[in-house]
Every structure is written in C-alpha cells, then in structure tokens.
Amino acid sequence: MASELEQLKAGIASLEAQRSALGDVVVDLALAPLRAKLAALAQAASSSADGAQKLKQVTILFLDVVGSTSLSEKLDPEEISAVMDGALARGTEIVSSHRGKVLQYAGDNLLAVFGADEVSEDDTECAVLCGLALLAEGRALGADVARRHGYAGLNVRVGVHTGGVLLGGGVDAEGTIRGSAVNIAARMEQTAPPGGLRISNDTFQHVRGVFEVEQQPPLHVKGVDAPMITYLVLRAKPRGFRTGTRGIEGVETRMVGREAEFQVLQDAFTRLHRERSLAFVTVVAEAGVGKSRLLLEFEQWVQGSGERFSLFQGRADPQTEGRPFGLLRDVIAWRLQIADDDSMAVAKDKVEQGIVPLFTEEGPELAQSHAHLLGHLIGLDFSDSRYVKGILEDPKQIRARGFHAAAQVFRRLVATDGVPILLQLDDLHWADDGSLEFLMHLARVNRDVPMLVIGLTRATLFERASDWSSIEDIHQRIDLSPLDKVHSQMLAGELLKKLPEVPAALSELIMGRAEGNPFYMEVLVKMLVGQGALEIGVDLWTLHPERLLATRVPATLTGVLQARLDSLPADERLALQQASVIGLVFWDQALAALDTKAPLALPALERRELALPHKEASLDGMREYAFRHQILHEVTYGTL
After folding, report:
1. pLDDT at 140
2. Which of 100, 115, 266, 324 is most buried per CB count within 10 Å?
3. Which residues, 6+ apart, have CB-to-CB distance to 579 below 8 Å?
4. How many whole angstroms from its chain centre is CA 502?
5. How many separate helices (H) and strands (E) can be counted in the chain?
6. Of residues 509, 594, 587, 596, the one with CA closest to residue 552
7. What 3-state class would DSSP assign to 208?
C-alpha cells in the first residue's frame, strides 16, 4: 500500500506542476480519478484495524540484557530460560504501564514503541521514564541473579529514538516496524553502557528540561551522514514546572507581541494585594502560541516586584485527565515536596507534617482529620485512619470533606503567613473533572481569601467544563492569537540574531511555515541547526544556504500535530485526511466528490480551528476552507 500511495502522490504532484501548460480543465479531469483512489486508500487505512500499514512518528525503545551469554555458560538451559523469560515478562509489564507496546522479542532483548496506536504529546516522556524504570528493574534482576546463582555481571541497557516509521504489513503485521529510525534506536541501545539509557537528540528535543542528562561525544551511526548528538539520561528532574523545554540554547529572546496580555496579568497581581480577594485568570491558546512564555515572564516580574506571596503550582497531563483529583494531587505534592518515587509512608508523613500545623488552633484531632481526609482524596492510603475508616463506602462524603480541607488549607495559610497566594495551573485542558470541580468549589467558598489562580489552557477545556460562566465576576480570560506578520518578523529577528545578516528568504521560510506560532518558529530554527543549514558558533552563527532547500517538518512539531489528529473522532480525521489530498485550500464540493459524508465533519473541524472557512469562496457555489497551518496540512497528508 505504501508504494501505491507514493506513486499516487507523485502522479498528482506531476500533474499539478503541468497545470500552467495543460490548463485547468485537462489537469482537473486527470486528477479526479487519482484523488478518488488516494482518498479510498486513506479511508481503508483509517477504518482497518487488522494490521494495515501506516506511517507514524513514534518513539522506539530497545532493551538488551547484558551478560546473558556469560550467564548461560554457568546455568542449565532451564535456569537461564527462567531468568530471561522472567526478565522479559517484567520488562513487558513496565512498557505497558508506561503506555508503550512491545512489538518484538529476540533472544535477550525487546523492541517497544510509544505512540503506535494512539499518539499523546507525552509519549516520548513516557518512553524515557520507561527506560529509567527498566534500568531499575535491571539492577534488581542483577542483584537477584547474584544472590541466587553467584553471577554478578547481569544488567540491562536501553536506547531510545524518536522518528518516522512504517508500522504493520508483512508476515507479522502486529510486530512489523520499518524505517531508519529503528536502526538508530538500536544503535542507541548498542552504544549505551550497561545500566545506562542513551537517547538521540530527536528524543531529547521532546523532553529537554524534564530529565537530567549528560551530552555524549558525537556518535557515528550507519546510514546517517553526520555524527549524531546523543545523551545519557541520569534521572528525572524533581517535581515542578518544566523549565527549558522551549527556546534555543545560547540565544536569549525577548517576549514579542504580548504586551497587552502581560499587562492584564500584572494588573491582576496588583489587585490581589490591594483588594485581597479571590480572582481567576485563564490564558487560552493552542499549543505553541505563547502561554508558557507569558507565564515565565510574569513569574520573573512578580519575583522582582518586592511583594510577598505564597506560591502553589500544578500541572495536568494526558494521564491526569483520567486520574481522580490528579491535578489537585499535583498541587499538594508540589507544595509539600512529595516526590513521584516517595513511598506511601513517606508521602503520608509529608502530608501530616505540612497540613497539621496549619490547624493547631482547632485542636490536634481536627487538624489530623483535615490532613487524612485531604490525603485520602488525592490518592494516599489513609483507609486505616479513624477519620476516614467510617466513610470509606461513601465517596461523596470523602469528596465533600476533602474539598473542605483543601479550601481550608489555603485559608489557614493566608491567616498564618499574612500574605496572598498565587496558584499557577498549567495544561488545564488535561485536568480531571474532580479537580475542575474543586476549582469551582474554591470559587464558591473562598471568595474572601486573597488568592490569584492563573490557568494555562487550550480552548478544549471549555468544551468539557461549562461552569466557568458561573464565576464570570471573578474570572478574566486572555485569548492569545498567533503573532501577526510584524511581530513574527520581530521574533524571527530575535531567533536569528546571531547571524551577521539574515537573508529575507530565511526569514520568510521560518515565518511562512510557522504562521505566527512562536513555538513552531523555534522548532524550525532548531531543525535548520540540526540539518546543518545553521552552524552555531561561540559568538556568531554561520548560514549554509545550499542546505535550506531540503527542509522537513521536525519531529517535535510532527508529534504535537499527530497527537491532535489521533485525538479526533474517526469521521473528522478521515475528512481532514481527504481534504489534505485536495490541498492546503479546499472546497466543500470537492471534498464531497471524494466522500459524500466528508463535508458533514467540516463544522466540527471548524470549531476545533483545524479547517478555517474563508468568507468568500474562490469558486462559484462552493465554500472555501483552508488548513489552520501549512505544517498541519503537511503532517495530515503525510499520514496517508
């Protein structure tokens, strides 16, 4: 199927290139059957779940058990088989628990992928976390083998790479994966030290700032022209907002085009100290438009303002959406410094130590009950507590008492310290329903508490949660739009300011493809660096114009957009794929010619701002649409 798709795409491109010579009528007549065939193949690929081939960006993980050959010389075949079967079985469990999928086993190693069936934006992070968990399991395996069999050389090593692959097809459709990315991932594993995890630069770009890493000397990989930059992952960084995941190393850029929105946040903080009451501000924008940068600038401003305040932070992710009170747990855990790897006993002790002192005036029993009820609500096991035991079968009562305790924590903290609270919540669109309900509870019962809640979110939050309308009197919404051409040009100048001279063609390349999205602009510049078109020097950069011609959408951006596509209902995704065959700009009647049901999905795609209608159609009787981004069109077309 892949070769047929490529032939169809090439044929369509060839005919389009001859439009000026052959004329629109001839070309359109020739293209019609080709596009219909391509749409049919796309529909078959979308609806088939029996191992059909599909092109996808995934994160690939290889695991190898080191020392198994030497161990096999010391043990009977039954014993070595039991050791290896147990190791691979446990490894498979760890992969599955991190939302990965094992595709292949071979002797003493396994190959797994993340993002094969459904893409999430944190697939790469899950893969690296999985790699660290596999290393921990390898250490436990080695200790067990040493104790049981007296052999001290058993360990594991892991390699991870992110890239495009072809999944499915062949004799073993479920386990088939092809592409140079697989070879690169294997090379990451083969060159990792025993007990080590090596990741490629493509993977690193997805998780920069999330893990502590050590950059390694350039690595030569067969089939890759230039030596590869790779990293050894040491550990996950402590809980807190990720830092450094955006931006270009060595280049400090100023915030561009967000002066009015920045002023809204400054005014809200000033009112917090003057009026001493509860207020909510939500910053709403799609991925990469500038929510995180705006918050970073605000954080730096408040730290230098001289005003005192108590800080709380929380971040939702695709997993917290299905985890009851997951975001509330993250807020409490950040404040009390509860680490992800803390034992249950340690986490419970931190809750008691952090919360009980706030309620000492109410007596030790009531203070302890607040701590136990809140801790149990957020997932810590206080079921043996006498304050929880009697209501274990009544989740509504646990929720009500836990909400009361959490709201009282903020109230008591203000009373104790005498300073207002700043609560920062990132990625609210992934927040679980329970945590969103708590925010509404907070708005009802703590209006007299000096507290500013700033939430960063995508517009999809308001498709799920309509309660925000009930707090309009204390809620401000800031909508960030893509940068206009003037500000895009200013940002391009900031990103490229280490070039002695910025050619207009380079600036237009970055601006045109990113279409006002600052994150996309940064990713495109990083792509040019990675492909050698921009050479980074100590003080100045060098441009190699001949390498500007071959540009591809970088993996980081592909993953974001692919996750968005995978999250769509099947009919909307198929309609968007079919529209991509027509072009960056398409018409409803042309889409209907490919599939009579496809235009029915256009209103939903319009609401999601993936396909935008033009006010005036270019062809009589047809309504014209365009993909939200040129890169979105490219990634959608690339999924066929």
Report:
1. 93
2. 115
3. 586, 591, 598, 611, 625, 627, 636
4. 32
5. 24, 18
6. 509
7. coil
Q: What tokens were used for 392?
A: 């274990």
What is residue 173's DSSP assignment? G
The neighbour count for residue 616, using CB atoms within 10 Å, is 7
SS percent in the chain: helix, strand, coil, step 5: 55, 15, 30
Helices (H), 356-432: 364-377, 395-417
Residues present in the chain in total: 640
User: What does the alpha-carbon distance between residue 493 and residue 487 come to, in Å, rounded to a whole number?
Assistant: 10
pLDDT reported for residue 361:
87
Phi, psi of 336 (to 5 degrees): -95, 5
| Residue located via tokens 């690296």 | 128
Q: Is 442 helix (H, G, I), strand (E, B) or coil?
A: helix
Cα–Cα distance between 159 and 144 in angstroms, integer?
23
Q: What is the C-alpha separation between 163 and 132, in angstroms, rounded?
A: 20
Which parts of 48-122 fold into alpha helices (H)?
68-72, 77-97
- On whether the CB atoms of residues 181 and 61 are closer than 8 A, the answer is no
Nearest by Cα to 598 from 610, 590, 606: 590
Q: Which helix (H) or strand (E) holds 603?
A: helix 602-607
Tokens of 600: 């029915």
Please say whether the dihedral angle defined by the alpha carbons of residues 410, 414, 417 and 419, taken in this order, is positive or negative.
positive
Beta bridge partners of 57: 164
629 burial via Cβ count (<10 Å: 0-12, 13-18, 19+): buried
Q: Let me know if 104 is exposed, middle or buried by CB neighbors in 10 A (0-12, 13-18, 19+).
A: middle
Three-state SS across 25-38? HHHHHHHHHHHHHH
CB of 562 closer than 8 Å to CB of 56: yes
SS3 123: helix
SS3 category, 156: strand
Chunked in runs of 10, what are the mean pLDDT values of the chain (640 residues)?
57 62 56 63 50 78 91 86 90 91 89 85 90 94 90 92 83 76 94 95 85 89 82 80 53 87 96 93 89 90 90 83 88 88 89 93 91 94 92 92 96 94 93 94 95 93 78 92 92 90 85 81 77 78 76 64 78 90 82 87 85 64 76 80
Spatial contact of 479 and 286, defined as CB atoms under 8 Å apart: no
Q: At what angle do helices 518-530 and 555-566 cross, to 10 degrees?
A: 130
For residues 274 and 268, give the distance between their C-alpha atoms in angstroms, rounded to a whole number: 10
- Which two tokens mark 459? 């517009």
Please count the other Cβ atoms lying within 10 Å of the Cβ belonging to residue 149.
15
Q: What are phi and psi of 361, to 5 degrees?
A: -65, -20
CA distances (Å), origin 441, targets 252, 366, 545: 41, 21, 57
Check the CA dihedral 313-316-319-321 and report its sign. positive
Contact between 457 and 295 under an 8 Å Cβ cutoff? The reply is: no
Q: How far apart are CA 148 and CA 142, in angstroms?
A: 10
User: Among residues 192, 234, 150, which one has the least CA distance to residue 65?
Assistant: 192
**pLDDT for the residue 239:** 55
Q: Do 362 and 348 meet the contact criterion of CB atoms below 8 Å apart?
A: no
